[in-house]
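Run log, item B.
One chain of 173 residues. Sequence copied directly from the ordering sheet:
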Amino acid sequence: MRSPSMWAGKRRLRLRELLELALLCALMFAFKEAMAVLPNIHPVLLLILLGVRVYGWRILYSVFGFVLLEIGVYGAGLWTLVYLYIWPLAAVLALPFRQNGSRLFWAAFAGVFGLCFGALCAIPYFFMGGWPMALSYWVAGIPFDLIHCVSNTVLVFVLLPPLVRLVTGLKNR
């Protein structure tokens, strides 16, 4: 029998919360697919940051679910490895700041993450072909990183605060 002190401070994931996280996962995937015609303009990071603000570390369930959906639809490749560390990294980096209510802070966070996206994607190329391969991959993608930066910044600046209020309000009902 487990002692109560072993579980002190830990709370199991409730069914409602699991369903909410599954919905966030589905929204990440659906919105990314719906906006696929636009290069690097999608609300995945917005929804991850929303999840961090509302659900804390539990957003990692949604993040890994999103990655599994992507792999299920598109198959496995080098990008799979990249997605397995980039999206969880976004959540983990945001977690210490989850109580920060500043719209500018979250917009800047999203913009910097979008700018760094290509450099983070280049990491496996470093191990495959060294600095020249990683650097050429990253430099070739800088225009897309700039688009990613601007779109993340605008989406998060405009939508994160009202979405946090909406989801928090719905959770508290």
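Observations after the first pass:
- Residues 142-172 form the longest helix (31 residues).
- Residues 1-9 have pLDDT under 50 and may be disordered.
Flagged for discussion on Thursday.
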